[in-house]
Amino acid sequence: MLNGPIIVAASLLYLGLLFAVAWWGDKRADQGRSIIASPTIYALSMAVYCTTWTFYGSVGRAAVSGIGFLPIYLGPTLVMALGWFLLLKMIRTAKANRITSIADFISSRYGKSHLLGGLVTVIAVVGVVPYIALQLKAVSGSVSLLLNYPQVVMPSRSATLPVFADMGFYIALILAAFTIVFGTRHLDATERHEGMVAAIALESGVKLLAFLAVGLFVTYGIYDGFADIFQRIAADDHLRQLTNANPSGQGYTGWFSLTLLAGMAILVLPRQFQIAVVESVNEAHLKRAAWLFPLYLLLINLFVLPIALGGLLHFSGPGVDADTFVLTLPMARRQEALTLFVFIGGLSAATGMVIVETIALSTMVCNDLVMPLLLRFKGLALKASTDLSRLLLGIRRGAIVVILLLGYLYFRLAGEAYALVAIGLISFSAVAQFAPAMIGGMYWRGGTREGALAGLSAGFLVWGYTLLLPSFAKSGWLAGDFLTQGLFGWRLLQPQQLFGLTGLDEISHCLFWSYFANIGCYVGVSLLRSPTAAEASQATLFVDALKHTRPVGAALWRGQAEVADLLALVGRFLGPQRAEAAFAAYARQHGGAQLEAFDADAELVHFSESLLAGAIGSASARVMVASVAKEEPLSLPEVMNILDEASQLRRYSRDLERKSRELEAATGELKAANERLQELDRVKDDIMSSVTHELRTPLTSIRAFSEILRDDPKMHLADRERFLGLVVSETERLTRLVNQTLDLAKIESGNADWHASEVDLKDLIEQSVAATSQLFHERGARIELDLPAQLPLIRADRDRLIQVMLNLLANAVKFLTPHQGWVRVALRAQPSGLEVSVADNGPGIRPADQQIIFEKFRQVGDTMTDKPAGTGLGLPISRRIVEHFGGRLWVESVQGEGATFRFFLPFAGAGQEAVHASAASL
Amino acid sequence: MQRRVLAGKLTGERLVAVFLCGCLLFNYPVLALFDRGDYLFGIPLLYVYVFAAWAGLIGVMAWFIERPRA
């Protein structure tokens, strides 16, 4: 049986669990073993977007407007697709400039303006505190409902509880404690709260599971699936309308406005900024979160319509508020456990939102509202005080308590008033006013401080007039006359039909006019003057945040400062130990010298300022640093100059990169060429030594025979003739060698003369065989020809090819056994050319030697015993000739069974000679 | 490295395309095409359409992000 004590115990247990998780998360963060460093946790924590307004309110909206609640979730889905650019840029900018709140973001962008930061804070507090009230109301309401279990009694009709008996009050206090403990443990320059994020992620999980559980129960437990519910609805003419896009007459314009509004909200809601930007552990998590978070939104909305329609069917009649269906349906079916689980889910939705929103607001209130005031009115006292970190923490803690109590107070005062019930979209519309100044500032350099101030103020005023005041009037807090009569009786000024604009629902109406005023003033006023030096330099930091090389803030500061002053200043706000640790880390990063040895250069000043910015906001940080450092203000031309230099540097560095790549490539080519040259040099040396060696052999015999002839005048005539014959043949060999060497050198250097013409290979082979017939005859060898009659002509140098053939034939016959040998010459047509083979039945060539014989001066055989039978240049020359015409020359042989030399010549068109020929003929 | 940068750029452009596509799918007039009171599997066509398009969009985003290929 659900009763008070059980509900209280369950709530306390759950909140205790949150404390434990947050404590654990902080502990792990201190150890450097973060538990939230995962895209899934990041996406879950983003789901703080879904508050009780989603958990209970979506069903309420769906019961009135059918699927009209969906744009609230479609907008964020679409914007997350752009998150790759938008959120990434926000995260980079915020991390680089130590920005810790949306007020700081906007104030920093427009030249670190206190006024702007203050205005943003005020808008955020006015817009968001009622939303916090709504969460407390939801918790309080759900408790009141549960207390009557199993009766379903609407809280508004039950007696209003006194404050001290109201669960909502205690929840507010516990949340204040939680937020103080995990949101303001210490002043951190980055303002990240890992424990808090872990707890929020857990809460997101719980609320999703709870909602899915109740959705499944209603759809499949009470009814018989989706189709069953819709079938029952279809039978009812009134309810049937709910399945259209346009049931309550808001039309597609309303749908579009809501999508836009929600899309903006996901970027500019203080709690979303806190979670998505400030608490981001690693920007890479954004990628997966970009689709995981929309998936979460889809899942949590899957059962909204079935629950709403199921509730309407179940509680036919107006007795039960549709906002409570999520809880009252399981109650009516006496599902105790499920009811309690749903209640905890609602509690998760409420507490998650309240915690994050309160932290975000307290940071803003402290840094952008209280600090500037303290600096202004108590500046001297502030400077005299030594350690301000306690004061700062005190301000934040105070702000948290005040914000939560304000929220609770608003809830108590407003009660069931329209102003509270409708606050969801009213609140969205308020914070949506940040979008033009914020997104504009990220992409447009021309925005100025006055432009942003004018835009924000105008948008805020129009929002107040067209949405907030009417909601007060509808709650009965204001006389409603002006709604219908217009302000001062001017009908054109009717808040919800401004200037006679009709046909829009109130949200679209407000969105149109407030953005009209906001964007108009922002752009219009910005264009009145060019940005100042401070604005231009900040604009560069924001607009160029995604560029790889960008000017650092330090480049934009000039002046003098002392290290000790800076250290003392930072120490006063962050605490001396943390400041010293931070400075020591800085010193280590910049060369490891002692801190005292460091010059307080622009970079160190910038570093100190960003440390301070994290703790007290960028505008106050600038003021504080200015109090200890003598800054020489840069004029706009100087800033533009620096920025220009920066962009020129970027260009130069790109050029340099390109040139160095080109150089690298050139170096590689040179290296290869050098290696080739060395190789050629080595080859030349080899050739020289081979040539001299080859020349010496015939020279030696010529000299020996000549000496014999000279020294022995009585030699027989027969011997004399024999010796003279040897001298002549050796001389011929010598001549051949010299000729061939010259020939090869010519071919290799590309200086050979080529006379290409159409050659009939059959004719050529027959001529070559005839020329060598004497050789065959001497050896007693047979020669067989296998030549087809009709073959296409080949384009080649006739004399050179004869040289190849003669060489192959001479080689073949050279190694034949006398009187037993034969040589078979065959000519075959291939598809792309002609192939000639010269086969013999000589000793064959060892596989190892089959490549060597094509090298210069290499002859196979034992050079010590065999008399060299050739020059060793015939085959290399032949191979080069064949290759010159695009062909190949190779050998096939099995040792002991003869060898077959083959060469292949392509038809004209395949070889390079053909290219030359056709080029010449043009 | 170069390839990764290129793939990242391409993924970004694909996601912008998803965004534009989603703007089209979730607004008038495409939405009106499905708002005719028809039923699919006993569920109003509009409801089925919005959720299917939504899921499809998320699926495409996931595909582009998780398998970036230049």
Provide an overview of this structure.
- The complex is a heterodimer of chains A (922) and B (70).
- Chain A is mainly α and 922 residues long.
- Helices cover 67% and strands 5% of the residues of chain A.
- In chain A, the strands form three sheets. Chain A has a five-stranded mixed β-sheet. In chain A, strands 1-2 form a two-stranded antiparallel ribbon.
- In chain A, helix 9 packs antiparallel against helix 20 (389-414).
- The radius of gyration of chain A is 47 Å and the shape is elongated.
- Chain A starts with a helix and ends with a helix.
- Residues 862-868 and 910-922 of chain A have low confidence and may be disordered.
- Chain B is mainly α.
- Chain B has one domain (2-66).
- Chain B has helices at 2-25, 30-33, 45-66; strands at 39-40, 43-44.
- In chain B, strands 1-2 form a two-stranded antiparallel ribbon.
- In chain B, helix 1 (2-25) runs antiparallel to helix 3 (45-66).
- Chain B is elongated.
- The A-B interface holds A 67, 70-71, 74, 77-82, 84-85, 226-228, 230-231, 234, 243-246, 252, 255-256, 259, 287-288, 290-291, 294-295, 298, 302, 305 and B 11-12, 15-16, 18-19, 22-23, 26-28, 31-32, 35, 37, 39, 41-44, 46-47, 50-51, 54-55, 57-58, 61-62, 65-66.
